């Protein structure tokens, strides 16, 4: 009996998504079947693919090498022409040094390293394709570990938040029943959105909250009716995009709106206030640095989980994935945030 002690079914499925050709696929599927089906013999499983038990035994033994070798060198009969199977020792050392720098230093639009980002960099820079599992091993060998980074936000004073909450409750009570309360927020989704990333082991990481990477820009709104509205923006946020959003919100939720939003300059601009003066829209601004009061922030958190640690190769690909994810996001209860 052959055991794949160092390789799991998940590892084999990971490699299966990356191989090309009928034979490598059969080899991996047979190994997965063998590990998943208790009681099935090697002969029974091998016969499904037209082979003998000896064939399966040889490949099960060979797959043990996935722990230490690139999958191309293990799964295929021989290296595919024109494609290097692995990094040279010099290239490996160079790559490990790069991992201790920011991805920005090698012109990548991401604040820290993830497995998909590192894997794509190896492919583009060295022409070598490794499995995700092998890339994780290289990251660990380079002295990196998987950590959660703390975002660097400006924090509001708790007393300012308490004062604002009391004031908002009074304002809400003074509005007539035809007003819809809508909270607004903005986000920038980059091509590699990090929830966790790889950092040097002795480092307590933080990630700057910044908009300097290429990104998909979104304005979002959550209504107290339980509805949401999202507006992709082709340009950087400005007073014009804010006015466009307010106009769209009236079409979506009705003329009478109480819009609650943060103190970004494009929300507080003179042009925005002049537009609102001609409408039944009431503007109410959160205290600075108070994302926890805004229910639309919860929509972004859920979007981050949907897109987190995936590498998108273009903004079009990112936009399609983001809008599909937003369609599935249910609106949070606004008053749990606004009136805790």
UniProtKB/TrEMBL annotation:
<protein>
    <submittedName>
        <fullName>IS630 family transposase</fullName>
    </submittedName>
</protein>
<dbReference type="InterPro" id="IPR047655">
    <property type="entry name" value="Transpos_IS630-like"/>
</dbReference>
<dbReference type="InterPro" id="IPR025959">
    <property type="entry name" value="Winged_HTH_dom"/>
</dbReference>
<feature type="domain" description="Tc1-like transposase DDE">
    <location>
        <begin position="193"/>
        <end position="319"/>
    </location>
</feature>
<dbReference type="InterPro" id="IPR036397">
    <property type="entry name" value="RNaseH_sf"/>
</dbReference>
<dbReference type="InterPro" id="IPR009057">
    <property type="entry name" value="Homeodomain-like_sf"/>
</dbReference>
<dbReference type="Pfam" id="PF13358">
    <property type="entry name" value="DDE_3"/>
</dbReference>
<dbReference type="InterPro" id="IPR038717">
    <property type="entry name" value="Tc1-like_DDE_dom"/>
</dbReference>
<dbReference type="InterPro" id="IPR012337">
    <property type="entry name" value="RNaseH-like_sf"/>
</dbReference>
<dbReference type="Pfam" id="PF13592">
    <property type="entry name" value="HTH_33"/>
</dbReference>
<feature type="domain" description="Winged helix-turn helix">
    <location>
        <begin position="111"/>
        <end position="166"/>
    </location>
</feature>
């Amino acid at each position: 009996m052959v055991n794949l002690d160092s390789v799991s079914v998940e590892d084999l499925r990971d490699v299966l998504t990356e191989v090309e050709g009928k034979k490598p696929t059969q080899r991996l599927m047979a190994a997965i079947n063998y590990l998943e089906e208790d009681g099935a013999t090697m002969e029974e499983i091998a016969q499904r693919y037209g082979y003998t038990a000896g064939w399966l035994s040889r490949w099960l033994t060979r797959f043990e090498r996935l722990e230490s070798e690139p999958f191309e060198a293990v799964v295929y009969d021989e290296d595919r022409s024109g494609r290097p199977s692995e990094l040279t020792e010099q290239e490996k050392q160079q790559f490990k040094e790069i991992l201790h720098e920011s991805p920005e230093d090698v012109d990548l639009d991401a604040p820290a390293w993830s497995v998909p980002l590192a894997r794509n960099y190896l492919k583009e820079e060295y022409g070598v394709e490794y499995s995700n599992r092998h890339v994780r091993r290289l990251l660990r060998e380079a002295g990196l570990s998987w950590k959660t980074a703390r975002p660097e936000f400006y924090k509001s004073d708790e007393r300012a938040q308490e004062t604002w909450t009391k004031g908002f409750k009074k304002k809400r009570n003074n509005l007539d029943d035809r007003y819809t309360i809508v909270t607004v927020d903005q986000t920038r989704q980059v091509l590699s959105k990090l929830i966790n990333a790889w950092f040097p082991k002795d480092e307590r990481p933080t990630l700057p909250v910044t908009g300097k990477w290429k990104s998909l820009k979104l304005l979002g709104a959550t209504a107290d009716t339980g509805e949401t509205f999202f507006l992709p923006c082709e340009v950087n946020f400005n007073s014009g995009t804010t006015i466009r959003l307010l106009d769209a919100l009236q079409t979506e939720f009705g003329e009478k709106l109480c819009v609650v939003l943060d103190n970004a300059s494009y929300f507080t601009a003179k042009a925005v206030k002049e537009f609102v003066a001609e409408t039944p829209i009431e503007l109410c601004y959160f205290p600075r640095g108070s994302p926890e009061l805004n229910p639309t922030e919860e929509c972004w958190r859920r979007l981050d989980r949907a897109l987190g640690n995936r590498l998108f190769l273009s903004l079009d690909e990112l936009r399609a994935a983001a809008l599909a994810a937003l369609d599935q996001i249910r609106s949070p209860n606004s008053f749990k945030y606004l009136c805790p």
